[in-house]
Amino acid sequence: MIKLHPPLPTSFYEKQTLDLAQALLGCVLWKETEEGLAGGIIVETEAYKGPEDRAAHSYNNRRTKRTEVMFGPSGNAYMYTMHTHNLFNVVSGPIDKPEAILVRGIEPYYNQELMRKRRPNVKTPYQMTNGPGKLTKALGITLQDYGHTLKEPPLWISHKPKEFMSFSIKSGPRIGIDNSGAAKDYPWRFWIDNNKYISR
DNA sequence: GTCCTGATAGACT
DNA sequence: GTCTATCAGGACC
What we know:
Layout: H1 10-13, H2 17-23, E1 28-33, E2 36-49, E3 77-82, E4 85-92, E5 99-110, H3 112-118, H4 132-139, E6 151-152, E7 155-158, E8 169-172, E9 189-192
The structure holds a DNA duplex.
């Protein structure tokens, strides 16, 4: 699988964050664990643009143990715990520009059986991965992956498979950030139109 | 729609 | 040490 779907190179991540958020749509997110390898198509993302974005953890350049990885180079994993769930983000922006992209939804692409095993009790296939906390559980992504590069196993992102080369992208306000002033209205959420694995 | 769960970092005393 | 908010999810109505 790694030979068929090699990691995207450093140059892929050297884009404006809003462009990268859209470029990630259709790409495959892979995670290999002791249980096996699983992969899913990224179908929904949200951009968070550091200093000027009140909704971002790195707003006003807040530099802490948690946000530290966002001040580093792009192409690394930023993990964050929300209640009982782990959320996965791709670090974006150059060094000292703390920006990131939250992955909110994936479509199972490889080893759906393993995802189902990790997500018992779901009633429809969509419920396995149609949310930021759900997809990390389905793929087996944990806080251990914080700060890890996305350019080599066990956690990596590969180019769009040919069946996902063409689709239309929609955008709109982000989810769950109601207390962030004007920032809550920024249309920095992107998704693949008509995809069934969008979080809402 | 409402309510409850409950990990972790960060702010505060 | 203690308090509290959080880029949700699930169970319920």
